[in-house]
Structure formats: C-alpha cells, structure tokens
Amino acid sequence: MDTREFESRLEEATKIAGEAVLRHLPEEAGQQSRLTEAMNYSITAGGKRLRPILMLETYKMCGGCDGELIGFFMAAIEMIHTYSLVHDDLPAMDNDRYRRGRETTWYVYGDAMGILAGDGLLNYAFETALKAPEYCLKKDDITNEEKLEISGRIWRALSVLSRKAGIYGMIGGQAVDIMTQGREDEELLTETLLFIHEHKTAALIEAAMMTGAILAGAGERQIQEIEKCARNIGLAFQIQDDILDVTGDSRELGKSIGSDACNRKATYVNLKGLKQSGEDVEALSREAAAILDGFEGEHGFLQELILNLIYRRK
Questions:
Q1: Three-state secondary structure along the chain?
Q2: How large is the average pLDDT for residues 183-207?
Q3: Within a 10 A sphere around the Cβ of 248, how many other Cβ atoms?
Q4: Using one digit for the tens of pLDDT, what is the confidence trace for 61-70?
Q5: Per residue in 5-31, pLDDT tens?
Q6: Are 104 and 98 in contact (CB under 8 A)?
Q7: Which residue has the higher pLDDT, 101 or 200?
Q8: End-to-end alpha-carbon separation of the chain, Å?
Q9: What angle in degrees, to the nearest 10, is found between the helix axes of 3-23 and 300-311?
Q10: Separation CA 266–CA 289 (nearest Å)
Q11: Is the model's pLDDT at 181 over the cut of 60?
Q12: Cα–Cα distances in Å, from 63 out to 138, 164, 221, 283?
C-alpha cells in the first residue's frame, strides 16, 4: 500500500470513527447542560481516533459488516479514552494546560467540572455500548437464533471493555504510574514501567481490537492473537510517546512537552535511552503486524497503520 492510498484510507477511517462518536454524544440540555458541554468539548477536540479505528478495522478483518452495531462500541471506546485524558490533565495528575492543540477541559471549565466531565464520559460510554443489545433485538433481518448469538458476543465485548478499562487494566496502570513518581530503583522501575505501559496504555487498545474481533464472531484462538497483537501496539505507542516527550515539538504535538521530566516520572527513554527505545518501538510494531498475517481477512491498511506508529511525530 503506497503512501497516498494509506493516507486516503486513514482519512476515510478517521471520518467514519468521528461520525460514530458524534452520533452518540449527549445532548447539551437541562440543568446539567454545563456538564454535557464540558464532556462534548473534551471529545470534539480532535485526536487520532486510533482506538475506534483499530476496533473497526479488526471487526472488518474478522468478517464483521454491521456498521451500526460496531458504532456503539467505537463511540464508547473513544469516550473512555477521552475521559482518561481529561483526568490525566488535571492539576492533581499531570497539570497540563493544552491537549490536542487547545486548552484542556479543566483549564476551561475548572478542575471540579473537569473531574465530573471525565466521570460523565466514562458512565456515558457504557450507556452508549448498552444500546447495542436493544438494537440487536430490534433487527428484523436476522433470525432469533442469530439475535441470541450476537447478544452473547455483545455481553462478552462489554465484559472485556469494562475489565480492560478498570482496576485490572487502564485505571490500575494509572494508579501504579502515580505511585512510582520520583522512585529511583532502576531494576524495579523497569519491571514496573512495563506494567504501567501494558495497563495504562495497551489495555484499552486490547479492549478496542478484542471487542472488534468478538463482535465479528472470531474464534477463541484468534481473539487471543488479537490481544497479543494489541499489547505490542500499546507498548510501542507508549514508548514512542515517551520518545516524543523528549524530542517532539509542542506545536506539532498539540500539547506540552517535557511534562514527564517536570513531574519526575519514570519513562522508557530515561531507563533505556533514545536508541534502544526506538529499536524496541520498531520491533514491537513489526511483530504486531506479523501476527495479522495469520488472518485471512483483508488487513493491509491495519498493518500499515501499526507500522506508521514507528514513524509518527505527533
């Protein structure tokens, strides 16, 4: 796939993901409208929409074809990801003023409303995903047996999504990240840092791709391979993020750089150096791409998307 074709496919996928998110945003009405306004401000700030795109492409690779069904979960995963960023930026966490090229939610709406906007997005994500069973039951172009089978997939996908986003996934990784700030035991830090990256970042990418595979009806072994692939992608993505926090341009990235050093956070670059970090990003990304070759469904764009993580500058 040449560069022009990849960029065209990425633009199309980003548009589809963005439309899925916008379709399910809460209405800015009622006495709590300031809250829903803050929620929508957060999620319409742009971003790569990487997780819903990975979900959609995995779904299609595994044979899925119901755009409405997968759309509920694409919106949900982006809401969960966005809530985590809203909370990450808070003064009690990273204390960042800029995200995705504009002022962060807490800075615009105040830190109290920033907390509530994050809470609202997390809860609304599951409200959105839980519309899928009702949608399935109302379909008149499938049999009752097929409805039962798809409903089973939906409930399993919800289980994966909730666990990967929770205390045994993303939130657990964030908690350990906070607890290790300022620690200087290098051997212990290396092991702990991998735990943080595997949970804080990779877990939600695992949730996205596993959900796509599950909803499409993939087999158990395929789902396990997808989980391994997604873990590699998450680790590579986070290591590259650590690299960009040192080498990036804040105008190109759309956010502050150097915040990890200011907050005395342990990073992969600090422990391994820039050269080794770059090599590990490439190795992890190529291994993830190789796993996809075991799938019969079309996955050329998905592979290119993964490999593109190696060279991203923002």
A1: CCHHHHHHHHHHHHHHHHHHHHHCCCCCCCCCHHHHHHHHHHHCCCCCCHHHHHHHHHHHHCCCCCHHHHHHHHHHHHHHHHHHHHHHCCCCCCCCCEECCEECHHHHHCHHHHHHHHHHHHHHHHHHHCCHHHHHHHCCCCCHHHHHHHHHHHHHHHHHHHHHHCCCCHHHHHHHHHHCCCCCCHHHHHHHHHHHHHHHHHHHHHHHHHHHHHHHCCCHHHHHHHHHHHHHHHHHHHHHHHHHHHHCCHHHHCCCCCHHHHCCCCCHHHHHHHHHHHHHHHHHHHHHHHHHCCCCCCCHHHHHHHHHHHHCCC
A2: 86
A3: 19
A4: 999 999 999 9
A5: 999 999 999 999 999 999 999 999 999
A6: yes
A7: 200
A8: 22
A9: 100
A10: 28
A11: yes
A12: 22, 23, 15, 28
189 phi, psi to nearest 5 deg? -65, -40
CA–CA separation, 82 and 40 (whole Å): 10
Please state the pTM of the whole predicted model. 0.91
Q: Which residues contact 251 (CB under 8 A, 6 or more apart)?
A: none
Contact predicate 173/201, CB 8 Å: yes
Q: Could you tell me the pLDDT band of residue 310, with boundaries at 50, 70 and 90?
A: confident
Tens of pLDDT, residue by residue over 214-269, are 999 999 999 999 999 999 999 999 999 889 988 865 454 444 545 554 445 678 89
99 - beta bridge partners? 102
The angle subtended at Cα 202 by Cα 196 and Cα 205, nearest 5°, is 155
Q: What is the pLDDT of residue 189?
A: 77
User: Is residue 95 within 8 Å of residue 113, measured between CB atoms?
Assistant: no
Residue 219 burial by CB count (10 A; 0-12/13-18/19+): exposed, middle or buried? exposed
* Residue indicated by tokens 């800029």: 98
Length, in residues, of the chain: 314
Check: CB of residue 54 under 8 Å from CB of residue 121: no
| Phi and psi angles of residue 206, each rounded to the nearest 5 degrees, phi first | -60, -45
Q: Are 246 and 269 in contact (CB under 8 A)?
A: yes
pLDDT at residue 111 tops 50: yes
